[in-house]
Amino acid sequence: ELNSFLWRVNRTPPQPPSYLFGTIHVPYTRVWDYIPNSSKQAFRSSSNVFFELDLTDPLTISKLTSCQLLPHGENLQTLLPRDLYRRLKRHLDYVKHMMPYWMTADQRGRGLYADYLFNAIAGNWERKRPVWVMLMVNSLTEWDVRSRGTPVLDLFLAQEAERMGKKTGAVERVEEQCHPLNGLNFSQVRRIKKDSSS
């Protein structure tokens, strides 16, 4: 049996059980077929579903976007060592050039254009904090580009919960995720990047 990452919390009857399900931020199509029926049934039978963040709320997305930015007047060119900044710019130029070749026919059929997709992922990158640029660069692979337009598992489940008329909510605020990451200094970010590359 697959490990479902589903925990059941039994409560005193007649209270229904609660469930805790561990999700990952990848396109749901990558993992959906491997999620056991017990997890899917727990989701279907639950009347209330709470997520890490409410990814269906435009205000959440706006806050996530703004928390990634450097303070007003700062940019990566003045913050990063010159050689690192040049390598980063070259890499992003390469990705922008390759993106039309990486995109699928299905993406193009849905009206996604390479320039639009690049800007959606990497737009305003020079104003982002180093930790967010590192996360962005890690998601700029051919495989990741090909899966753009498909909701990540969390968003897919949130959309399904809304479609099924379930009460939804979030257990964290954007600030609780942003502030710890934004508190990392440049040497800590470099260390994370080095460790994740090994």
Q: Give the integer mean of the pLDDT values.
A: 87
Q: What's the overall geometry?
A: globular
Low-confidence stretches: none
| SS content category | mainly alpha
Distance between the termini: 31 Å
Our count of helices gives 12
- Total beta strand runs: 4
Q: What is the spatial order of strands in the main beta sheet?
A: 1-2
Strand content: 5-15%
> From the alpha-carbon coordinates, what is the Rg to the nearest angstrom?
20 Å
Helix content: 40-55%
Pfam families: TraB_PrgY_gumN
Membrane topology: Single-pass type I membrane protein
Subcellular location: Cell membrane; Membrane
Cofactor: Mn(2+); Co(2+)
SSE blueprint:
Blueprint: E1 6-9, E2 18-21, H1 28-31, H2 37-45, E3 48-51, H3 58-67, H4 76-79, H5 82-102, H6 105-109, H7 114-122, H8 130-138, H9 142-146, H10 153-163, E4 167-170, H11 174-182, H12 186-197
Parallel strand pairs: 3-4
Antiparallel strand pairs: 1-2
